[in-house]
Task: structure prediction
Amino acid sequence: MSNETNDDITVVHVMRHGEVANPDGILYGRLPGYHLSELGRRMADRVAEHLASRDVTYVVASPLERAQETAEPIAKAHGLDLATDERLIEAGNIFQGKTFGVGDGALRKPGNWKHLLNPFRPSWGEPYVDQVVRMMNALSAAKDRARGHEAVVVSHQLPIWIVRSYVERRRLWHDPRKRQCTLASLTTFTYRGDRIVSVGYTEPARDLVPAHLLAGAKPVKGKDKAFGA
Result:
């Protein structure tokens, strides 16, 4: 018989991976072969240091290389094996493998416009509702593995923002420029028993993030493409 109670407090930190080496400006999506840059590795190390004193008993990441590489120093700092959960993967996107930005790349081609007709679903990729379902299930699984302690979950910007929006009862469609989910940030869900009771947000590596990539930053010409997250 389980001795777990509804008073158990479990903390699940959902981390966005660090900066990726992507000199060609490709929206990499779920493509393999995209690794952290040197700056991205510094971001991962910074967050590992930030979490070193926390009661972390479980670390899990998306199967994509950039997420695995971000999670590795955190798992190592706590003497844990790194787990993988396919449900934490980046959102599917029809523009994967292309350059994508206002005024250039995929948006200039009329053949792609049909994919931009419904931002509420969205029409260009994995439905927001599907992202909510898989991310909520992944977070719940991490919570169960770390019951009464803390877990670190490494995923990608859009799925993280969508599941946070769902929990905070905001509409799922949104302006991508206004997502509060900077590189190497932590979106923290606190559970009492099996119920989420609070959501927090921190940026332990904020000083390492290029200014134009911080949440709410104004677009910079030549640096505002959505390369994948």
Remarks:
- The chain has a mean pLDDT of 87.
- The two ends are 42 Å apart (CA to CA).
- The first strand starts at residue 9 and ends at 16.
- Residues 128-145 form the longest helix (18 residues).
